[in-house]
Design a protein that fits this description.
Blueprint (H helix, E strand, L loop, with lengths): L8 H14 L3 H13 L28 H14 L5
Length: 85
Amino acid sequence: MRTTLALDDDVAAALRERARLLDLPFKQVVNDTLRQGLSPAPAEARPVYRVRPHPSGFRPGVDPLRLNQLNDSLEAAAFAGPRSE
């Protein structure tokens, strides 16, 4: 495709210099530079996140998966008030 493109002087100078250094046609340097700029950036390698388990400190017989049920029971008992015996 043929088109007219207005480049800033510094950009044109940098592209001309790159074309001279690489001994490539100006058109090819412009196209390669635009392709590189428009392509998605490669994903950076992130460090692996590791979970290090440790003892929870619950006593034997306490099921940590049922703590919400225990909390509900304690709230209901507090709402009901003290028992008269």
